[in-house]
Amino acid sequence: MIEVKDIYKSFGDNDVLRGISSVFHPGKNNLIIGGSGSGKTTLLKCIVGLHEPTKGDVLFDGQDFTHMNFEERVPIRKQIGMLFQNSALFDSMTVEENIMFPLNLFTEMSKSEKLDRANFCLERVNLKDKNKLFPAELSGGMKKRVGIARAIAMQPKYLFVDEPNSGLDPKTSIVIDELIAELTEEYQITTVVVTHDMNSVMGIGDHIIFLYQGQKWWEGSNKEIAHTDNKELNDFVFASKFMQAAKERL
Amino acid sequence: MVSQGVGSLGIISIISVFIGAVATIQTAFQLVSDFIPKSIVGGITRDSTILEFSPTISALVLSGRVGSSIASQIGTMRVTEQIDALEIMGVNAPGYLISPKIIAGVTMIPVLVIVSVVLGLLGGYIACAASNDVSTQDYITGLRDSFNPLTVSVCAVKSVVFGFLITSICSYQGFYTSGGALEVGQSATKGVVWSCIMILFADLIVSRVML
Question: FRET pair for A16, CA 20 to 30 Å: which of A64, A127, A132, B211?
Answer without folding.
Answer: A64
